[in-house]
Each structure stands twice: as C-alpha cells, then as structure tokens.
Amino acid sequence: MIMSEIEETRITVMKDWTGSRLDRFVKAVRPALSFPVIQTLIRKGKIRLNGEKAPGRARLKDGDIVEIRLRKERPAEDLPQVPIGEKRIAARFGDIGKGIPVLFEDDDLLAIDKPAGLPVQPGNRSELGSLLDLLCRYLPPAEQDPDGPQPFAASPVHRLDIETSGVLIIAKTRRAAREMSRALAEGEARKTYLAVVDGIPTSRSGTIDMPLTIEKGESSRAVPDRAGQPAVTHFSVIRKLPGGRALLEIRIETGRTHQIRAHMQSVGHPVSGDPVYGSDRGGDRQGRMLLHAWKISLPHPVTGDTIEIMTLPPPEFGL
Known about the structure:
CATH topology of the domain at 188-317: Pseudouridine synthase
Strand content: 25-35%
CATH architecture of the domain at 188-317: 2-Layer Sandwich
Largest sheet: 10 strands, mixed
CATH superfamily of the domain at 188-317: Pseudouridine synthase
CATH class of the domain at 188-317: Alpha Beta
Distance between the termini: 60 Å
Radius of gyration: 21 Å
Helix content: 10-25%
Order of helices and strands: EHHEEEHEEHEEHEEEEEEHEE
C-alpha cells in the first residue's frame, strides 16, 4: 500500500528572479522535479502564481507568490524500490545528448552545438528528455541556502525547434540570463541561420517583413496576420543545390516562433523536410528539416565585449 499526503509550499519571488519564467523558477527551487513533471503540475493547477493558474512561460516579478502543491508518496517498507542509475538515464535519453560539442564556456555563459532531434524543453512529442534535463546533470543547481536567494538553474536564453541544429546560448547565472534576455529583446544580438529550401528563389536576396501570429490547434503553427507580432527575415542565396533546391543564409531581426519556417513558406520556398510548412521534399537522411543556427554575435553579459560563436552545419547542407 502507498500512503500519501499533500505538501504545500508558498514562495515569495525575489527581485533577482524578475523576468524569469515560472517553470524555470520552480525547477530552481525544486531541482528534484523533472521538467515534464513541472509542466504536468502547472497544467493541473498544482503550481499557481498569485493564487491563479498560469502557464509555464509566465514571467515573474518581484513580490509574486508561487504556490506548489505536491503529493508526497511514501512506499510501504515491503514495496520494491526501483534504482535510478545510469542505465535508466540512458534508456530515457538514448544516444541523443551524448557528446554535445561545447563551443564556448566561461563563468557566465555556455554555448553548445545542439543536435537535430534534441528538444530544448520537454513537450508532448518527446519522451526522451530534453536539453534542460541534460543541463541539470552538466550544471546542477547549487544547494539552497536557507538565508539566501533561490539558486539559479542554468537555462537557454533563446529557443531552437527540436529539428533545428546549431548554436544555442545558455545562461549560467541569473545576471547573465537577465542581460542576455535584454540584449535579445532590444535587437543587440545578430542571429544567422543556414537553410536548404525547396525551389530556387528568383532574387539573390530579399527581405520578408510580415507579422505573424500563432494559430492554436493539434499542433501550433505561425501564420501571417497583419494584426500579429512584427517579424522581419532577411535571406540571400549562397548556392544552388541538386534537385532544384537552394542553400540560403538567413538573418532574423525578430525571434518569433517558427519565424523562418513560416516566412519561407510564405514566399514559396519552404525549408526542405518541413511538411508542417509546406515542404514536399525530404530533409536529411533521417528526414529532418534542414535548418541550422549557424552563428550568433552578441555582447557578453558581464564584460560587454562582442562575442561571436559559430558552428558548421551537417554535411547535408552542402556548405
């Protein structure tokens, strides 16, 4: 028989966490909870913000109250215990996540070459874990100081789709997360991608200035909408590829969800291997879409010096 009881915790958000996401705050104060469990608790209303249900992406401010209600299960003494070891970790993650190249690391930042197929955050499509889970093993949060602020859990400062490979920046400190988020929001970061697209654009370069909104459904999609959020994408053709495709260099001024994918579909050149946005071609050898975060240039959150980080794409891009 398994006995259970409810443990309720109320935590006041301190100033250092202003602007952080609710789910990442919960992960920092309850590091034993995996992100899939945190997302489930949020959906069920077991984690509340100021007494109300809120999404995991909700941004916190100084003085907010986060309530966490957990069911504590206590197995009977004769209940066999399941060991949590390397074999279970390997079974959960498979080969994905092994040997991820570190492109840059100091006391404030970590930059990795994210492989295609690894989700940044847990989602309904993935049961293999996520980059956030791997970070908890690579950069575990410090132990809680009862008299100090909540420890900071390393977290990405921007997102890449599950099938997008390339440079991903991770903040290792609260200050770095705050400054990097500001730099991205204020356009101080320059993000450049490579994409193989169906068809060959008639113009060697162009700009797509088209607001986007998220259309909710079985799977969310970005769609053109004049009332949506501003989105600007610049592209230039690097070379033509066999099979009537082209390799493009793409720079985005904004970072909307699925921006490149939606914008390239809107001009009749969807990213190869992306059937969600109209591609009828295969992507790489595993059928993944051919989109790669090539390089990013931005000010260091502490020194202010400009740093540029880049990584070559997989060979399927023909670079």
